[in-house]
Predict the structure.
Amino acid sequence: QVQLVESGGGSVQAGTSLTLSCLATGYSKIVNYKGWFRQAPGKEREGVAAISPGGRPSYADSVKGRFTISRDNTKNTITLQMNSLKPEDTAMYFCGRASRGIASPLLPSEYDTWGQGTQVTVSS
C-alpha cells in the first residue's frame, strides 16, 4: 500500500520561499498523477499544482509563475518550490496520489491517497 509523507513546511515572511517534498513509500509499479493541495481553516481543499506521470504540470491560477512542481520517479518524490509567498498561501498542504487515470488534475476528488499534511504559514 502506497503511503505519502510530506515535509518542508514552516513559518516564513511574505516574499520568501519554501520547498515542500512528498515521498511515496510502499511498492507500486504504476507511475501516477500526483499533486499538491491546500486547505485553509474553514475552507475546502483546493488544488495547487499537479504533475502527470510524464512530467506535465498543471497550476492553479493563484500560484502560476510563483510555484513549480517537479517529480523524480526514480526516488518516488514530488517537490513543490514556492516562491514569492503571500499571506493567502497560508494553509495545510497535502500531497495526493491518483490510483487511476484522471480528467481534472487539480480536482481533489480525483485523488485517493493522501499524506498527513504539512503546515505553511506566511506572515506579512
Remarks:
- The mean pLDDT is 94.
- The longest strand covers residues 18-25.
- The chain has no helices and eleven strands.
- The two ends are 40 Å apart (CA to CA).
